């Protein structure tokens, strides 16, 4: 009888100990805000390049750079105290990270990431772009002013312009895309494109239109100007 008791109880005890150990392991791992060994880093692909060429091919043939800054810089990711080597790929709209001997992308599906470059204190956040028809179109935006109600962002990108003919004087090149500004309401994770004119801007805030219009006129602000826009968004948050 004692032998039978041991045969039954020991496997149950072992199963209980194993289950408890795995539960503790999962709990500890999930508490990590950013862990390069999990699903937060993905290999670079050429799936979002609007040609049949690879990213490497385009870089070789085009003048200019797909980066505003080619250098990998020290940056923190989210609230973790760890520092990583990161650079923004302005053409692919991806954040590249050094992972051992490889260069990979930070997975944009993890929207909690706030990437802060230590030398400039420039902060990038992933938001869902609402003005595009593409499904799950996540992009990186520079955070200009952070507020619970209305946060302001800037979008900086580059585009690839192919050569129009075979003449050497007409080569492919990377060009800057016109800067656009966006807002995020109530920490929704969605980027709302702002119009470039004061008149169209006012239509977005019908309930506060009179106060905003008066402030725009009094302060002589232009919503196409970054510093004016920061001042205006901060004012709107105070209403």
Which secondary structure elements does this structure contain, and how are they paired or packed?
Blueprint: H1 2-30, E1 41-42, H2 55-61, E2 73-77, E3 83-89, E4 94-99, E5 102-106, E6 114-117, E7 123-129, E8 138-145, E9 150-155, E10 158-161, E11 173-176, E12 180-185, E13 190-193, H3 198-202, H4 209-219, H5 226-238
Parallel strand pairs: 7-13
Antiparallel strand pairs: 1-5, 2-3, 2-6, 3-4, 4-5, 6-7, 7-8, 8-9, 9-12, 10-11, 12-13
Describe the structure.
The chain contains five helices and 13 strands. It has 239 residues and is of the alpha+beta class. The protein has a domain at 1-31. The strands form two sheets. The protein has a five-stranded mixed barrel. Strands 10-11 form a two-stranded antiparallel ribbon. The N and C termini lie far apart (79 Å).
Major sheet summary line: 5 strands, mixed, barrel
Q: What fraction of the residues are assigned to beta strands by DSSP?
A: 25-35%
Distance between the termini: 79 Å
The structure class reads alpha+beta
Q: Topology as H/E string?
A: HEHEEEEEEEEEEEEHHH
What integer value in Å does the Rg equal?
25 Å
With helices defined by DSSP (H or I, 4 residues minimum), what is the helix count? 5
Major sheet: order of its strands? 7-8-9-12-13
Helical content (DSSP H or I, runs of 4+): 25-40%
Extended strand count: 13
* Global shape: globular
The overall pLDDT average reads 80
- Unreliable runs, pLDDT <50, ≥5 residues? 1-33
